[in-house]
Amino acid sequence: YRDDxxxxxxxxxxKEHLLTLKPKTSVYxxxxxxxxxxxxDSEKYKADGSPLRLFCTxxxxxxxxxxxxxx
Length: 71
Known about the structure:
- This protein has about 70 residues and is of the alpha+beta class.
- It has helices spanning about 15-20, 30-40, 60-70, and strands spanning about 5-10, 10-15.
- Strands 1-2 form a two-stranded antiparallel ribbon.
């Protein structure tokens, strides 16, 4: 896709989605997924003594919520 501003594996984000970061606008899911992907990738560069962190994408949260709701 030529309009992708961010692409990593199955996570993609285009300019129109990033424009949803303005006030009083619902943020598009790909913006959250992009941010979580970047933060998770940066975890491999942290100091060994730093606590482990995991940033969830929208898909991770939907699956978790569905799992908790079912059980």
